[in-house]
Amino acid sequence: MGADSGPGAPSAVPWRKVLYERQPFPDNYVDRRFLEELRRNIRVRQYRYWAVVRETGLIAQQVSCVALFLTLWSYMEQGELEPSAVLCVCLGCALFGYGLYEVLGGASDGKRTRLADLQSAAVFLAFTFGFSPVLKTLTESVSTDTVYAMSAVMLLAHLVSFPYAQPSPPGSLSLNAALFGSVCLASRLPGALHTFTMLTCALLVFALWPCLLHRVREKADWSFPWAALLVCLAGVRGLGSLWPEGALLLSVALLMLTLLCPLLLVHLQRHKDNIHGPWDEAEIREDLSRFLN
Amino acid sequence: MVLKIFFPQCCNTADSGLLVGRWIPGHNSAVVLAVVHYPFIPGQVKKYLSEIQSQTQVDLAVLGSWSMPKEGQEGLDSFLKDLSTIFPQKCWLQLSREIGKRGFTCRVVQNNGTLLQDKEQKSDVDGSEEDKIILVHYDQRKVMLSQLHPVQEADQKSEIEPSELRLVFQTVAQSQPLFFLDKYDDGPLKLTHWQSEGREASIIAELLKQASVPVCICLTWLLSLWLWFCSFRILNIPPVKFITSKLSTCVQSGYRAVHFKTVFSPKKADTHMDFMRKANIFVSFLVDIALGLLLISWLYRENRISKLANTLVPVADHVAKELQQLLEWLMGAPAGLKMNKALDQVLGRFFLYHIHLWISYIHLMSPFIERILWYVGLSACLGLTFALSILSDIVALLTFHIYCFYVYGARLYCLKIYGLSSLWRLFRGKKWNVLRQRVDSCSYDLDQLFIGTLLFTILLFLLPTTALYYLVFTLLRLVVVLFQGVIHLSVDFINSFPLFAIGLRICRPYRLAEGVKFKVLCEESGSPLHLMMEINPLKCSSVLQRYRTPTYSCYPKDSWAALCKKLFVGELIYPWKQKTDKTD
């Protein structure tokens, strides 16, 4: 600060930080008191390790959900799973989840009636069932690699744009990306019923499960880590039955995500240095247009 | 002050006498119109001038004297000076020629009180700029007949003060009755001015003008009959009106009716522009009829009609066959593109069925085509424009299947584009706010999101197929539209080309004047500056621009960028759509 130590400044008149008075100092002069108002790290939160680990469970279980979905699709494509059986399981899961949701929610919010839920379910089933033959032929002429790449990108976009802070109505972009990816994958399946089943699963996994998990976390907080752990284990187990090396990779990734990353965060938090003060940050915005003329 | 005297060329060699003309008000200049020869009786001159003045509304006056030296007429000078007392004026000009000199001298005698001052002499002595006299020679006939542009009609009072030149032109043009007096007439006065050489021809023209009045009335009556027929209610109910507004023959006949209404109105064309409009329309109508008759004489010789009819059906057949092949190519894997097979098949079969319908229609028509063509060909005697309009309509009818394909393709494509654009907003969790005209974020329900994404996926994967069909049919449609556009342009050209004005510009360039230019005739010391005034003809481009008959029609409604955008979005294009009538 060159202006800070102005030699010619007489100390007879004390400097005041005002612009509306004529003072015997240069315009850019500031004195020692200027830095007294400096504040450091006023809005930094101190994290505790296990709390962060607990929060990362949400991310880990979402990744595992995607892995679970891909496993299911893989089995369906190989024809090792009967679509009707999967549908039955899905229906059971949906009914159980709905019951749990209602039990946990109680009368806390009366925004949606049973009738509206039923209507949504009917609309969804009718549309998917009606469109499944169309969806089956949709990507026939597109090459398989393109379809895979597109679904991979879309599922990645789902994971990136998922609203982890507020997951209860799943964010539009994340849900849409996941559905787009699952439609792409489902169109590769051998039959129309397969497609229908796959889309039902996608809806359960990507749309309804986050809602249920959020409700569980709100009402019974103790059970959330166990549920997340359960989903992670299921994802690793499912992938392991199909591709053991992949399962190993996934478990390593999950461990890094849940254990190593929070450690890194807590550790790096110490190095945080934000300064705040009564100044505006300089913003250089040179107007170049006058040089052009 | 510089005194300008406009002097007609035809009076250069006139005998001595009085100069008759007009002082231009507000400017220091005089226009000489004629010379009254000796001998005359001053009272008769005054009477004659006041008669002419009441006819022409130009305040004529005796400007001065003109002396042409001849043997035996030497001592006129004192007589000429005395004349100024008989015809009192503020200024008295004395123009005189001397034998053996090209220019002539001019003296101005100011007659305020008893002061007589020889201006010319004084200017010679002082050499001062302010008392110069410039003699401007002009061709009286050309100036009388020419029309100075931009046109300012006499009856419309404009804010702008007319310029000196315009006043000169107006004075000469308005004092036309002065020039009717013939050189050989027996009368109390002998005058020299421009006079018409072909009296006989002008008599014939006058007779024709008189005869045209009953013809015009008769034709106007016929026209009103036709308009009455057109105003029947059955022709104005929606489907008929829509069809007639789309058929270019009907549109053309409408224009013709309006043109005839202008031409055959029994009212005399008062203003220059009215006259030119009438003449332009009439001449282009005559040329149109002549071209049409030429076409007929070519068409009805050597059995050309039946030849034409015999080639028309195979051509239409051939086009249909080509279209069929094109569709079959599209139904396969055109250019290695990845199309949705199911949709491709559906669309292809749909269009193939249309072509099948079309071919059977053509075959149903084929026995009658020769007869139809024969009768349609007769319409060319109404003018080439009618024949061209009918050709355009026939092309439109024969390529109706292409139009249908285009409309189906465009509608489908448009639906897809709009659906995709709004679903893409849903995909990102946004929506279009109609009230604020912007994209807002919006939280959708689960089922909305699900169905929207499903539809988005379907539309996205089906888009290339539709787009390809749309592209191919749009190209076909554009070819047809281009052809029709060329026909429309030529019809419009014939309708609106100012043939009469262009002919006038070429044969009589002085009739349409844009300005004047001056040429120095002679500049000698002791005599005033002599200038020759020549008329600058109007430029051909501005003739075209000024005298083009306004048509109600046929210009591309959109700019090229807007057209491309419409093509991209899939809106239907009618590039040759008519604008709404001016009368509405």
UniProtKB/TrEMBL annotation, chain A:
Its main location: membrane. Keywords: Glycosyltransferase, GPI-anchor biosynthesis, Membrane, Transferase, Transmembrane, Transmembrane helix. It is an enzyme of class 2 (transferase). It is a multi-pass membrane protein. It is found in: Membrane. One of its GO terms (molecular function) is phosphatidylinositol N-acetylglucosaminyltransferase activity. Its EC number is 2.4.1.198. Pathway: Glycolipid biosynthesis; glycosylphosphatidylinositol-anchor biosynthesis. Pfam families: GPI2. GO terms for biological process: GPI anchor biosynthetic process. The chain crosses the membrane at residues 49-72, 84-104, 116-135, 195-212, 224-240, 246-266. GO terms for cellular component: glycosylphosphatidylinositol-N-acetylglucosaminyltransferase (GPI-GnT) complex. It comes from the Eukaryota. Belongs to the PIGC family. This is Phosphatidylinositol N-acetylglucosaminyltransferase subunit C. It comes from Danio rerio (Zebrafish).
Automatic annotation (TrEMBL), chain B:
Pfam families: Gpi1. The chain crosses the membrane at residues 211-229, 281-300, 346-365, 372-399, 405-427, 448-472, 478-502. Its EC number is 2.4.1.198. GO terms for biological process: GPI anchor biosynthetic process; regulation of circadian sleep/wake cycle. GO terms for molecular function: phosphatidylinositol N-acetylglucosaminyltransferase activity. It is an enzyme of class 2 (transferase). It comes from the Eukaryota. Keywords: Glycosyltransferase, Membrane, Transferase, Transmembrane, Transmembrane helix. One of its GO terms (cellular component) is membrane. This is Phosphatidylinositol N-acetylglucosaminyltransferase subunit Q. It comes from Danio rerio (Zebrafish).
